[in-house]
Design brief:
Layout (H helix, E strand, L loop, with lengths): L1 E7 L5 H13 L3 E3 L10 H6 L3 E6 L6 H13 L4 E6 L14 E4 L5 H11 L6 H26 L1
Parallel strand pairs: 1-2, 1-3, 3-4, 4-5
Helix pairs in contact: 1-5, 4-5
C-alpha cells in the first residue's frame, strides 16, 4: 500500500514527520510526499496514486495552504484521508473541505485521541472513511501520544 504524507511543520518539528512516516512504514505503507521539492506539479498524480493521505499542520508550520490544497486533492479524488490540524492554525481558507479532520491541542491531546477512537469505531462510515480512520487513526494516535509524552518529559 502507498501513503502520501503532507506536512506543515517547523524545522525543529521534523521528528513529528519522522514519527508519522515511521508509523506508516510499520503499517506496511510505502510513503511519498512533496517534501524538499520546490515544484509541486506532480503532487496531484502522487496523491491520486496512493491508498491513504495523511496530513499534519502544526501551528509552527509555514505551509498550511500546501497541506490543505493536497488534502482537497485527496478528498476530491476519493482517497481515504486523515488531516491533523493543531489548535490555533487560523484562518482556514474559504472552501476548506472539513473531511476527516482532527483538531488537536498539543498540551492536551486526549480529546483528539478520543475523537479518533470514536470515528474508528463508527460502523456507519463509508468504506473510504473507515479505511482512513482505521489506518490513519492508529498513526495519528501514535503521533499524538508521542507529542504528549515529549511534553511530559
Amino acid at each position: 500500500m502507498r501513503a502520501f504524507l503532507s506536512d506543515s511543520t517547523s524545522d525543529n518539528e521534523h521528528y513529528l514527520v519522522s514519527t508519522l512516516s515511521g508509523s506508516l512504514w510499520d503499517n506496511h505503507f510505502a510513503v511519498t510526499s512533496t517534501y524538499g521539492e520546490s515544484e509541486r506539479k506532480f503532487a496531484h498524480l502522487r496523491i491520486l496514486n496512493t491508498n491513504l493521505f495523511v496530513g499534519f499542520i502544526s501551528i509552527n508550520g509555514s505551509q498550511p495552504d500546501k497541506v490543505i490544497h493536497e488534502h482537497s486533492i485527496a478528498v476530491e479524488g476519493h482517497i481515504p484521508t486523515i488531516l491533523l490540524i493543531e489548535k490555533g492554525v487560523y484562518p482556514l481558507p474559504l472552501g476548506f473541505i472539513n473531511h476527516n479532520v482532527v483538531y488537536f491541542d498539543r498540551q492536551n491531546p486526549q480529546a483528539a485521541i478520543d475523537f479518533i477512537i470514536e470515528n474508528t469505531n463508527n460502523k456507519e462510515n463509508k468504506a473510504t472513511d473507515a479505511f482512513a480512520w482505521l489506518f490513519g487513526g492508529e498513526i495519528a494516535i501514535n503521533l499524538l501520544s508521542r507529542m504528549s509524552k515529549s511534553k511530559a518529559s
